[in-house]
Amino acid sequence: MYLSELTLKDFRNYKDVKISFSPQINVLIGENAQGKTNLLEAIYVLAMTRSHRTSNERELLTFKKEQATICGTVERKLGKLKLELMLSKKGKKAKVNHLEQARLSQYIGQMNVILFAPEDLSLVKGAPAVRRKFVNMEFGQIDPHYLHNLSQYRAILKQRNRYLKQLQAGKATDLVLLGVLSDQLAAFGSEIIARRLKFLAKLEKYAQDIQKSITCSKEELTFEYESSIAEVAAKTVDELYGTLRQCFADNNKKEIFQGTTLYGPHRDDVRFLINAKNVQTYGSQGQQRTTALAVKLAEIELMKEETGEYPILLLDDVLSELDGERQTHLLKTIQNKVQTFLTTPSLSEITRQLIDDPKIFRIAHGKIELREEN
User: Are 175 and 293 part of one and the same domain?
Assistant: First the structure.
């Protein structure tokens, strides 16, 4: 799959832009604050209906504009798709081949993207919330059922937390209602955990091979799913449901006292281990970066396995954060396989030697020019 054409209207600092891309590697060159990352963000938003940079979607609109539009033409094995996303202060509208989608969850997955930015190096050493977001965003693209369960889980979690606060304050006393909410949360939570375990097992296999390749087989990478409830590995969905229900029942008083839900997939984490040692705690900065790179590259192969097509890769100034060896491995992995958008202030010698026939764009003040000389 690849994005052949993109049109932006009143998105960030792009007032009206139409641009055609190479199905291979597209290099976006420009100084800081000129619009390189904004262009990558537009592609990400077109795929995911949300930004990776801000939760305030008004920031995506050009100053003093009421609406922004992102349109893209995606070439897939089964044919061409026209995607359109309209962003306004009132909300979002998404269209596929000019047909408006009733729910955004139906739209997500039409174009799959993987973003790798400097902040993604914190995937390994960052807080658990960083890894949960990673899991939710990536698996949500692959599996619409995961996305649906996650959406329902979040809605019920919000309702349950609100009710726990009411019980905490003595404004409510009905424990039967709490039990109903707990059962609903356990039902969706068990599905989420089961699908996470399934996808993480597949992701681990790809990441292990990549880690071994980068480190000349000196490092074995493994994943551990760290659950807020009892041991979850090898359990069926029904068993996970029973475990979650029991956990809620056993900890009613504790959760009411704290006024929040203390157990469930929204509290879980993923550990990365090298040679059986926790990389977050004991790994060097180089090992942490190699692990983050291995996990991101493994996503490419997992998406290919699950969807039948390679995703689109967005590299936002990430080469500057990697040494020559890791740059080489990254660029060799994606060459002639994945459509890639790469932002950089300038092309380094390493990059020039490793990228075959890139399409180079120069970006300045929200204007994009194709650079003929490579």
Answer: yes
CB atoms within 10 A of CB 164: 22
Last residue of a domain, one of 258, 290, 307: 307
**Tokens describing residue 209:** 């091979």
Note whether 294 and 212 are same-domain residues.
Answer: yes
Q: State the binding site.
A: 30-37
The pLDDT tens digits of the residues spanning 53-104 come to 888 888 899 888 899 999 999 999 989 999 999 999 888 999 999 999 988 8
Distance CA 341, CA 148 (A): 29
Residues 358 and 214 in one domain: no
- For residue 136, the one-letter residue type is N
Considering the domain boundaries, does residue 20 fall inside one?
yes
Half-sphere exposure of 275 (CA within 13 A, CB side): 8
Q: What mean pLDDT, rounded, does the chain reach?
A: 91
Known binding-site residues for ATP equal 30-37
For the chain, list residues with pLDDT below 70. 348-351, 372-374
pLDDT for position 334: 82
Task: Compute the distance between CA of residue 16 and CA of residue 38 in angstroms, rounded to an integer.
Answer: 13
pTM of the model: 0.87
Let me know if residue 347 belongs to a domain.
yes
Token pair for 92: 């979002």
Compute the distance between CA of residue 69 and CA of residue 93 in angstroms, rounded to an integer.
10
Domain count, the chain: 2
Is residue 279 one of the residues assigned to a domain?
Answer: yes
